[in-house]
Amino acid sequence: MGEIALSAKKLNVYYGEKHAVHDVSLDFAEKEVTALIGPSGCGKSTFLRSLNRMNDLIPSCRVTGEIRIGDRDINEGNTDVVALRKNIGMVWQRPNPFHKSIYENIAFGPRYHGIKNKKQLNDIVEESLRKAAIWEETKDRLHKSALALSGGQQQRLCIARAIAVKPEVILMDEPASALDPISTSKIEELISELKQDYSIVIVTHNMHQAARVSNKTAFFLNGHVVEYDKTEVIFTNPSEQRTNDYITGRFG
Ligand SMILES: Nc1ncnc2c1ncn2[C@@H]1O[C@H](COP(=O)(O)OP(=O)(O)OP(=O)(O)O)[C@@H](O)[C@H]1O
Description:
The chain is α/β, with parallel strands linked by helices. It has a domain at 4-92 and 168-247: Rossmann fold, CATH 3.40.50. 36% of the residues lie in helices and 27% in strands. The protein contains 10 helices and 10 strands. The chain has helices at residues 44-50, 81-87, 102-112, 118-131, 135-138, 151-164, 181-194, 207-213, 231-236, 241-247; strands at residues 4-15, 18-29, 33-37, 61-69, 72-73, 88-91, 169-173, 199-203, 216-221, 224-230. It has a 6-stranded mixed beta sheet with strand order 6-7-8-3-9-10, sandwiched between helices. Helix 4 (118-131) packs across helix 6. The longest helix has 14 residues, at 118-131. The chain is globular. Residues 15, 18, 20, 38, 40-46, 58, 60 line the site of adenosine-5'-triphosphate.
């Protein structure tokens, strides 16, 4: 494994009395894609959201354990959560562009974080859209509404928006599940490109997708991680019978 970008240690997540994630410890390597798979309700999204403290927004939610990035635990009280979410970006299941122009969707984050220079903002917009493989489709309509883009284009725009603030890690919660097959394959190609620069953690229901895009896979069941290994091992020679049963479609 390369350098560790992000690490969960004995992470537990509760919604009131409901214990949704049990004692999960996982290391995510720099510049690798890690897929989180498992049946509906097994805690994948809850775990993913805890990696940049998105669960803080849910009043009943309580988290124990550590999430380490570098030498810091993000669950410490003095964490700057805005800076944290700049460093660990998020792409959601449904594309959620702001009701603004394509340009403003991308420039918003860098501007919020203090970049005012117009040329610098222009460069960031172009670079982010290029990296998200949507520059050619948008360069002549940068000041038109982002909502006029197709769903697949909107999702690539949302990826560009996440990239624009220069994160180290990008979290993706089923980023292609609302898209058609062509848009899905564009997102998958993009993920393969992006891992040259970022660590990516992706929740997916689609096992073919996990097998295609990820280096490592964690199999979740009832809030526990049953098995975590190289993706090829999980899909061809898992150690646990429950992993084998899941990937061969016996349940879930
Ligand atoms: N906001 C919430 N309040 C209360 N319980 C919740 C909340 N969100 C999730 N849960 C519960 O926590 C458990 C884990 O849910 P989670 O959404 O993390 O699973 P998942 O594996 O991502 O499922 P899916 O694949 O269907 O999205 C489930 O039992 C779910 O009902």
